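Work Package 3 (structural annotation) set out to generate three-dimensional models for the target panel prioritized at the project kickoff. During this period the team completed the workflow that converts sequence records into discrete structure tokens, so that structures can be stored uniformly alongside our sequence database. As a representative example, we reproduce one entry of 291 residues exactly as it appears in the project archive.
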Amino acid sequence: MVADYSHYGSLHGKPLEASGTRELLSLNNEFSKPQKIRYQVIKDPKEIKACLHLRYITYRYVNFIEENKDHIDLDFYDLFSTFLGAYNVTGGRKTLVGTIRIISGDEKGEASPHIEKLIRTARDPKIKSLGKRTRTFPIMESFTLPDSYLDYFDKSKAQKSSIHPYEISRLAVRPDYWMYGIDVGLHYLLILDSWLKHSPRNYFLIAVHPRSRKRYEMIGFKVIPETSVVLYKRINQLAIAMIIDLGKYLQQPRSYRETCESFLPDFKKNGCFNRMLEKRTPLNVNNHSHI
């Protein structure tokens, strides 16, 4: 689920004092200065673990998950995921401040060997005992999707559906960076990475809180037919299921296309791009509240 906790201070429940939380929640001394944020696909084993730790700390902070001995948020969908990261590189330091994953329905991700090792060496029995995924996507644990959305993966059908879906999941941004629009840059990165794939990714599933429906609809997401509001499994929050045709969205005026095209040369050359960000104020937060 792409969590909605990052609505700048609007938390689900009282924040926790989880192990390791304080190290991420101390105020950044450079908040008065513009922040240089670097966006890149995460591939290094240590950075993959840092990504899972950031998810754990952030989701513990908003009461989404239970504590575990390894202090990482990991499930079997991570074996099929591409991990995207946002790093603060202000002043020459490199600190992971945001992440999101793209889940494939039929191919393991490049990071799968690292995920498998983390499962094998885990101390927590729940992580160590993770088996094979029982659903193609985590959204299917809470919603029944129309058959047409999954035809692509049905090997018994000679003609594949034109819809080859992926799921956007596990958005996590350090709470002390909620005011910087880190999630927007992560979605730029998602588009750039999808463009450069041999078979470009185009259709994305997502589960969000119902209060976010309008802002997602503004950028092309649509509620999946025959689905309704449910209590999302594992996280215990209300959710709706949505899908976007990315190609169709990017053909619209005022889409992300122009911005992403400006970042594309650097991304092709260096595998990353940078954004200079300033802290949002209460007066302009709503102007940047969309995905």
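The chain has eight helices and nine strands.
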